[in-house]
Amino acid sequence: MLARHWTRIAVTLIPLFIALLHAGGVLPLGLLQRLDDVLYDARLRATMPRTLDERIVIVDIDEKSLAEVGRWPWGRNRLAELTDELFERQQAALLGFDVVFAEADESSGLKRLRQLAQGELKDQAGFAERVGQLGSSLDYDAAFARSLQKRPVVLGYYFTSDREGRTSGLLPPPVMAREALEGRPIRFTSWNGYGSNIEQLARAAPIAGFFNPIVDGDGVVRSIPLLAEHRDRHYESLSLAMFRTLVGLPAVEPGFPRDGTVSRSYQGLESVTLRLGQKTLSIPVDDRVAALVPFRGPGGPAGGSFRYVSAADLVGQRLPPGSLKGKIVLLGTTAPGLQDLRVTPVGETYPGVETHANMIAGLLDGKLHVRPDYAVGYEVVVLVLAGLTLAFALPLLSAAKAVGASVAVLAAVVGLNLWLYLGAGLVLPLASALVMVLTAFALNMSYGYFIESRSKRDLANLFGTYVPPELVDEMVKDPDSYSMAATNKELTVMFCDMRGFTKMSERMEPVQLQHLLNQVFNRLTDIIRANRGTIDKYMGDCVMAFWGAPVETAEHGHLAVKASLEMANAVRRLNEEHRVQGLPEIGVGIGLNTGMMCVGDMGSQVRRSYTVIGDAVNLGSRLEGLSKAYGVDIVVSETTRKIAGQFAWQELDRVRVKGKEQAVAIHWPLAPADWLEPAQVDELKVWGTFLRAYRAQDWDQCDVLLLNLRRMNPKKYLYELYSERVASMRLLPFDPEWDGATNFETK
């Protein structure tokens, strides 16, 4: 019976083959890796204990502390007082610093001492006595060093990587000799530079650890390297250094895979081993000698995982004596301005200091999840078993039984993975198996049961001239969901007008003008279709399109803005070609608006078209006309901007167009948000300040800000336009009823 289905079996095996190539590293698929990260994050969030760990306390340099004590960095005398408070009054067991002291403290008193030494006050009585008093009392680094000395303190530092390999401060001694690796090429996380503590402090507190996390490709911190490499020497992380200090500073040794467990070509460590006399403790690590952070909860003072104490309360001795007795204390910050907030699986603004607290808690509990070295072998075995089961079973089953079999295989794959995660702490690949099972099922069902019906062919013929082929392919999968009947939907409409064609038509031959117009329309149409837009019509030298129908698209606003930016860039490239060919250049004006529109098949018995109508459509047309007035190529309404995703915007104005009583804000999309240069970011900040002054009718401040803006970008017509407006409005009396909007009476 299987012989009759060999083609169908082969089709079902295609996803298995691709998944095996991915698992073996032959054809790595970034999408699957990203999905694996998403699945890991979901498992982590679902299984977090969300309970308070009372062993660890975070002393927080928060906004309150900065307001009371002063901006960071604080004087070392303050830090000495804080350290003494923690150990003498509060009786803390261990203190770790998630900050670095890379420069010597130079107080205002020391500056005065330097003035005395330079002889500026030598003619005054008691010079020698003053110098002695100042010198003995204002060496704050020495005072801080004395407070650290002979106490259970672990300092923090960081590694860097750049071309020059800059270094500062004094590194602690490495914790593992290179000879211990037996010449094996371990894939440590490696850096060529560092920023460490000044020598005076580093010698007072010789135990230190780096606080660098590992940032994955999606910008999320999921793991911390326990050991890292710098110039063939190996150093420990802050969390490992604190844990070792707690358990008596055991020696650090590499934990190699046991004989026979992996091939001899394996390049990683199985664990980091801590040895103290005859006792050993193995900490599992991945192939980067890193461990996944065992996050306990959402993070932050309100997260409920660890107790947070404001540093200001300790400096002010507002905490009762002995409140932190026997506690492990980490000094760090949650203040946004100090830039130690991380993106993690459990929060997008997660305090960096709390990642170390979680790691220390995991080390104390012996509960660290790890991606084992045999993860690839596990992935291959699961893929083969699941893939072959589906390939040989599905062709023999009815549609309903095939669905049941696929769900059963899927449940088995997910269940096994979750059982190993919860029971053994193993983080194993899941995405490739999930995608393979789903894809194999889809291909098998499509091959076995897909029959192209008349309704699907009619639908493709009906909409084929309006929408891209890719959208038609989506529509034919469910033809009953689409029709030409008019309906109201929230859509995004675009009007794009080519500037300069009127003058060209007076100087160019009709055939030449036709060729040029077709060339431009072809490029712009390709961009609209590539961004899932529907072409409504061409009107002379204008093209009208919309997004969100007939195929519903949740991100219709984002796609429309993206298409408009690409169209403007395409016209610029086309003009470069025209300059080389001696052809006239053209301009473009684009208007975008989002709102409720009536969409459907409209017209007469002679001619009909699938189009949109409504007040929101008319506003889009008006906005296209405003692009010339503001000297920009794209004008976008406020409703579109709100749903358009991550772009950098410059608000142009608030306008009241013909036929509309309500003023609307209009914007100019500059580029994707992460493409802006720092100078452009600064320019937009100044522009935002200017608009507030403009709407407050503060013309003097407007003049100053416009002067700065024109210096930043002297070629931008927008600033020249507002300079003329300010000069004109300065002549008018203050109008308390003015809402800051500009009225346009023409279409």
Structural notes for this entry:
By secondary structure, the protein is α/β, with parallel strands linked by helices. 43% of the residues lie in helices and 21% in strands. It is built from 24 helices and 28 strands. The strands form 6 sheets. Strands 20, 21, 22, 23, 24, 25, 26, 27 and 28 form a 9-stranded mixed sheet that branches.
Topology, element by element:
Layout: H1 6-23, H2 30-47, E1 56-60, H3 63-69, H4 76-89, E2 94-97, H5 108-117, H6 127-137, H7 140-148, E3 153-160, E4 167-168, E5 189-190, E6 193-195, H8 199-204, E7 208-210, E8 214-215, E9 221-225, E10 227-230, E11 233-236, H9 238-246, E12 251-255, E13 271-276, E14 279-284, E15 290-292, E16 307-310, H10 311-315, E17 328-332, E18 341-344, E19 347-351, H11 352-365, H12 375-393, H13 399-424, H14 431-449, H15 454-463, H16 469-475, E20 487-499, H17 501-507, H18 510-530, E21 534-539, E22 542-547, H19 556-581, E23 587-603, E24 608-613, H20 615-629, E25 634-637, H21 638-643, E26 647-656, E27 664-672, H22 678-695, H23 699-712, H24 717-729, E28 741-743
Parallel strand pairs: 1-16, 1-17, 2-3, 2-17, 3-7, 4-6, 5-10, 23-25, 26-28
Antiparallel strand pairs: 3-6, 8-9, 9-15, 10-11, 12-13, 13-14, 18-19, 20-22, 20-23, 21-22, 23-24, 25-27, 26-27
Helix pairs in contact: 1-12, 1-14, 4-7, 5-6, 9-11, 12-13, 12-14, 13-14, 18-19, 22-23, 23-24
